[in-house]
Amino acid sequence: RTVYVNGDYLPENEAKVSIFDRSFLFADGVYEVTSVLDGKLIDFNGHMTRLARSLSELGFTYKADIDELLEIHRELVKRNDITEGLVYLQISRGSAGDRDFAIKDDTPATVVLFTQSKSLIKSPLAERGQKILTYPDVRWRRSDIKTVQLLYASLLKTEAAAKGADDAWMVLDGYVTEGSSNNAYIVTQDNVIVTRQLSNDILHGITRKAVLKCAEELQLKVEERLFTVDEVYAAKEAFSTSASAFVCPVAEVDGKKIGDGTPGPIAKRLREIYIEANRATAI
Ligand code: PMP
User: Fold this and answer.
1) Which domains does the chain have, with CATH numbers?
2) N or C: which end of the chain has fewer CB within 10 A?
3) How do residues 237-282 score in pLDDT, each as one tens digit?
């Protein structure tokens, strides 16, 4: 696999980053994951807009050059012959050559990209529906910034898997925030799609925005508001969204069937429409 590090395209085993890199020592880095369908990038501009926001919220002096990043994404897709899969982009604040909590503003950023070939449209998980377990959300209260500080999400996902589930949804003060790496939704008994409103407590999903637009076009009712775990148990349907899993139906939460325990019609329809619409506008 060919990867990209700070201006160079290299075989993955030759790519190097300093052990003093702040993303390694302090999780001082941000990232984006963009899907590839038919060799083209899905909602690339959406991801770059959020990247710019993450960088600015953390006070990075590095400013993303979107045209240059697009060129690198495309070059890696080409070199690695990716027709379906992902491009991962990480920008770290770089290294001051030693370990220091205080941030020096003259460290040049470390820019790393790599690809993953992966079947996205055909998904056994989407076909059977996810099993979800709920856990407290104990992350720092800036979950809107897409940092590489993913340890809690990673531990939860591992714990859920050890208990035979597929993923974890997090709960803050009695209300669902989001999934370990996706946004969370329910469909109420009267067919209203409910998802938590944007705030510092969730990632502002690029797929969330696109899927809410699809829902609007299908004239489905949407409410962006808090919802409880009891509302999840009582829902007609549930699903999650992310760039890599698109819309992924939920079959079961905490051992309780959602609806009849199979993917619901609204989630399935949104998955189809989302893929169709975003495939058509991929670049
Ligand atoms: N929430 C969290 C915590 C995530 O990690 C992700 C995916 N990185 C999402 C939501 C979904 O965001 P997107 O649709 O932009 O992939």
Assistant:
1) 2-117 (3.30.470.10), 124-280 (3.20.10.10)
2) C
3) 999 999 999 999 999 999 999 999 999 999 999 999 999 999 999 9
Say if ligand 1 is within 6 A of residue 176 CB.
Answer: no
Residue nearest to atom 12 of ligand 1 (CA): 205
If you search the block for the tokens 């201006």, which residue do you land on? 7
Residues in the chain: 283
**Nearest atom of ligand 1 to the alpha carbon of 178:** 1
Structure tokens at 26: 């302090």
**Please, what's the b/e burial string for 224-261 (b: 16 or more CB within 10 A of its CB; e: otherwise)?**
eebbebeebbebbbbbbbbbbbbbbbbbbbeeeebbee
Q: How much distance in Å is there from the Cα of 10 to the middle of ligand 1? A: 28
- List the catalytic residues: 146
**Ligand 1, atom 2: nearest CA belongs to which residue?**
181
**ipTM rounded to 2 decimals:** 0.99
- Per residue in 19-38, pLDDT (tens digit) is 999 999 999 999 999 999 99
Pocket test for ligand 1, best of 31, 88, 172, 183 (most atoms within 8 A of CB): 183
